[in-house]
Amino acid sequence: MEEIIYLNGSLVPRFEARVSVFDHGFLYGYGLFETMRAYHGKIFLLERHITRLLGSAEIIGLSVSLTDIDLGQACRDTLKANGLEDARIRLTITNGESDAFPWSSFSSKPTMVVTARPYTPLPAEKYEQGFKVGVASVRRCRQSSISRVKSTNYLVSVLARREAAEYGLDEALLLNDDGYIAEGGGSNVFFVKASGLVTPSLESGILPGITREVVMETAASLDISVEEGDVSPDDLGQFDEAFLTNSMIELMPMVAVRDEAGQMVTIRSGRPGQITRRLMAAYRERVAVDTGTS
Ligand SMILES: Cc1ncc(COP(=O)(O)O)c(C=O)c1O
User: Fold this and answer.
1) CB neighbour burial string for 277-291, b if at least 16 within 10 angstroms, e if fewer
2) Less Cβ around it within 10 Å: N or C end of the chain?
């Protein structure tokens, strides 16, 4: 079956889906995106993703052009048109095509694209082994509002992940401009200490992850404490467990970190810990309830 793309209000075959070379997303990275996971034909936490995108649109000045568009319906229609049950949905919105600079004219016609592609989860063994990550040489800027939006200018994450991949690692770990741990290349990070969670605060220059939010709610329901603050890479050796979160991988144990000096620091036993496992199970239960499969 041919892949179907949602483009500016229409569902079209993949090879007919074309965007202008004068699109501000292409020329300036002036746009936003969301990546969501569908389970059994239902997009998990779709409304939260739309809310985050609209909040980001407000921050970067794209919101006016989005008022008449039903973003959620476009995502559901694209999933259905592709006949998929388990999928990765990507919603991309840019400032649209214009001959003018984005700072001299405010385009009122955004470009909107939704893709839905089959998603095969990582194998269970990967969750048993956990991710090994590497501290990246590029950093997040905690002062910058850009760190808090999921923009189509994904260069910091791309460079960080390329560097991690060169070392054969699974994900990058980004520090902020003050040298504290911010987040993964495309994920948020949690640590476990004395049976409670510790995670970089939103002021660390991170994307406010939807999965991060759900993990914090889940922890509260299980009476697991959560402390948000500055996390120093010097403390890596003191944590009992660690894990990464995003909408696709859910919770992934993080068992080792290649630090800035190139040394591999193992998180305690180097194996997924008990609190991580409890939260992984609780998250999956939440998915099952929300997607009507429990
Ligand atoms: C930079 C960054 N941080 C964190 C996340 C996790 O966000 P979410 O849990 O909403 O998928 C992502 C998602 O791709 C990301 O790109």
Assistant:
1) eebbebbeebbeeeb
2) N
